[in-house]
Specification:
Length: 192
């Protein structure tokens, strides 16, 4: 019987994993501080939201390099997804200058909807090409589908997103940790 070895390495995996975890913190704390009535806290929150957007952008740029090795269309979709997410989340900072013009949550809902839809092909590519463990890729694809549905329902007045984002939030933390620990190493899978 013939064995074929497939070696996969994720470009800058530890950096991507670290950015995913740090982006969670930057946006979470930034959004909380941004809601403050204290101007210093509000501006520091705005800075953290911008830092989040920069990290989100670099996640897309760096991960595209790996995805392009397997499917350039998926690599581009993922990059543009992250670009849109970064811009939509950063749009919240415009509230400092354009008071009362738009909803605080519109940019967030749009960013999360696009992130959910644009990340499904990425997870399916992880699965198809055995870039990550199959259970992790399937969890991501299913989680992002549920995630996107939850944020789509927000546009119809259904407050489901906070409940349906949990599987994907846990997946992103797990995937980030996996990237930091294993993603930068060569993965060897053997098939008959």
């Amino acid at each position: 019987m013939k064995y074929i070895s497939n070696t996969t390495q994720i470009f800058k995996a530890r950096t991507i994993g670290s950015f995913v975890l740090l982006a969670f913190l930057a946006y979470g704390f930034g959004r909380h501080l941004f809601e403050s009535t204290d101007n210093v806290e509000k501006y520091f929150g705005a800075l953290l939201i911008i830092v989040n957007s920069v990290m989100v952008l670099f996640i897309g740029i760096l991960f595209r390099k790996t995805l392009n090795q397997y499917n350039s269309l998926v690599g581009s979709i993922y990059l543009y997804t992250r670009v849109f997410e970064a811009l939509a989340l950063a749009s919240l900072v415009l509230k400092l200058f354009l008071k009362g013009i738009f909803s605080d949550d519109l940019g967030y809902f749009l960013a999360m909807l696009v992130l959910g839809l644009g990340s499904i092909p990425m997870c399916l590519t992880l699965l198809k090409h055995k870039i990550s463990p199959p259970w992790l890729a399937i969890w991501g694809a299913v989680g992002y589908a549920i995630f996107a549905f939850g944020f789509l329902m927000e546009f119809f007045g259904k407050k489901w997103s906070m409940y349906l984002l949990v599987p994907t939030g846990l997946w992103e933390i797990t995937f980030a940790i996996w990237l930091i620990i294993y993603g930068g190493q060569s993965l060897k899978t053997t098939t008959r």
